[in-house]
Amino acid sequence: MSPPRIVPLGDRALTLTLGDRMSEDLSSLVMAQSARIRDAGIMGVTDIVPSYAALGVHYDPLVISFSDLVERIEAAVATDVSSAAAEVAETAIHEILVRYDGEDLDDVARRTHLTVDEVIAIHSEREYRVYVIGFVPGFAYLGTLDERLVLPRRESPRKRVPAGSVAIADQQTGIYPSSTPGGWHLIGNTDAILFDQNLEQPSRFRVGDRVRFVKC
Amino acid sequence: MLTVTKAPAYATVQDAGRTGFMASGVSRAGAMDLHALFTLNTMLGNDPGCAAIELALSGGEIEFGSSAIFAIGGATTGLTLSGREVPLWQAHHAGRGDVLVVAPPRDGRFIYIAFAGGVDVPPMLKSRSTYLPAMFGGRDGRRLRNGDTLDLLEATRKQRHQVSDQLPEALRPPLSVTIIRYIPRDESDLDSEFILSGASDRTGYRLESASPLSGKSILSQPVCPGVIQIPPDGHPIILMADAPTIGGYHVAGVVISADLGPLAQRTPGEAIAFQRATVSEAHKLLASASEKLESVREWRLA
User: What residues are paired with A185 via a beta bridge?
Assistant: First the structure.
């Protein structure tokens, strides 16, 4: 793992880069460093956004200067990255009930040379990790998908994917929290509410949480 | 209270936008031309970030159900209040039954109608901004429609009586800007001239150029309004107010905050050129924009 690297992301945010790939270790490190920056309680920091191998720190430049912010972040983050990754915060485990009746289920089975039952068994067997939340509010990128189910995204994205669709693409799986355009393969549906703007913590999942799909 | 009697093609309630929920994937949203919103609110004695109506693409019509003080600015347009022409960038009094007609934007793209007190819709995640991609905030998470009624928050007694002269041009936000400054992220060459594509909205402005840049997909990383993405087709996309919180395209740089409003006001077909800037230059420009607002406040009280 490389040492943290800070670069400006415009004049209201910066990126702290910790690596360049998707891995459980890097994700844990991103979480640990996010928590340290959050706990430093730096005035002027408005949002801390974890992603796979980098995290974004958004700030109000009328409250804190870029150089002061960099200094505060450098003081807050752990330089010993191997021990930092071990500081895993408490995370939740979510069970999501799924009806495996997605529009693309047969197509996925055909393209992966599996039966529909095998696709369902493989998808629901594993516990997934929330790597990133984004794309739309509450959309969690879950990994890592079993190699046997890995397919590239659809060539032409759908204009509307119904809310609650459980989908797969590349090495990831996810659930569409609201009806949006989307290029993933739809394998099932859930009634679980993943985003509620009336809650203080509007997204059901947080980065680092675990998710299990249960066939119903 | 007011009634939207002829809804513009694209009108939403917007304020300064949301902060604090980006880790849940919630975008900033808010006014596309923040400085125009801040200036109008300051003219009316509101907090700069009060909610107003943002409209684009066409004009519209509003009927006042009670008396109110309002001011309009942003893109250049024509206004009449119950048939009488009224200027932009000026606080006007409307009485019960008055009809405000806003013509389509002439120079620029987004027009703001601000009211003393501000538009009253229920705050969602600490903001009244409409966030169309997730359908919440503003008026039921959607664009304004014919027949919608909007309440106004109560203005102070002083605000209720304060009409004004027209704001001097020097105190208004810049509108005709064609050179957009950005903080580079890499060595991407943004020196050529770009044309703003028609496929541009509150989420992103697409640019076209004669010679596409070299773009690619990357491992998704945090993004924000202003980010200049270069997707594999080589035609840049500048993320705007409704930008997602993470993005999977190569990032060439980020447009400085001071130029995001003027960029938002460009219309499809217009040429755009880029110029490099540093973080400290960008911060100086933000500080001078906030001083300009202070001058608007002083002008109002004078």
Answer: A168
Q: Among all residues of chain A, which has the CA nearest to that of B184?
A: A10
Mean pLDDT rounded to a whole number for chain A: 93
Collapsing DSSP to helix, strand or coil, A163 comes out as coil
Distance from CA of A125 to the nearest CA of B (A): 26
Distance (Å) from the alpha carbon of A99 to chain B's nearest alpha carbon: 24
Give the model's pLDDT for residue B163: 87
For the cut 90, the answer to whether the pLDDT of residue A213 exceeds it is yes
pLDDT of residue A1: 54
In 3D, which of A156, A10, A23, A167 has the Cα closest to residue A81?
Answer: A23
Nearest residue to B206 via CA among B169, B178, B233: B233
Residue in B27, B30, B36 with CA at minimum distance from that of residue B15: B30
- Tell me, what DSSP letter sits at residue B170? G
Answer whether A56 sits within 8 Å of B24, measured CB to CB.
Answer: no
Mutation pick from B219, B250, B284 vs chain A, by most beta carbons of A within 10 Å, is: B219
Main-chain dihedrals φ then ψ at residue B59, nearest 5 degrees = -85, -165
Strands of chain B, DSSP E: 2-6, 10-14, 52-56, 60-64, 68-76, 79-81, 84-85, 92-94, 99-102, 107-115, 119-120, 149-152, 179-184, 194-196, 204-208, 217-222, 227-230, 237-239, 246-255, 271-276
Average pLDDT, chain B: 95
pLDDT at A215 over 70: yes
ipTM of the complex: 0.95
Cα-flanking dihedrals φ and ψ of residue B301, to 5°? -80, -20
**Residue B281 in contact with residue A57, Cβ under 8 Å?**
no
Q: Do A197 and B125 lie within an 8 Å CB cutoff?
A: yes
Q: Distance of CA B276 to CAs A8, B19, B212, Å?
A: 14, 27, 19
Place of tokens 């001058």: B295
Contact flag A9-B133 (C-beta cutoff 8 Å): no
The distance of A170 to chain B (nearest Cα, Å) reads: 12
CB-based contact A56 B221, cutoff 8 Å: yes
Query: Which pLDDT value is given to residue A84?
Result: 66
The residue with greater pLDDT, A195 or B158, is: A195
Which chain A residues contact residue B21 at CB under 8 A?
Answer: 47, 137, 202
The Cα-based distances of B209 to B154, B178, B252, B271 in angstroms read 49, 15, 15, 10
Q: Please say if the pLDDT value at position A85 is more than 80.
A: no
Give the global pTM: 0.94
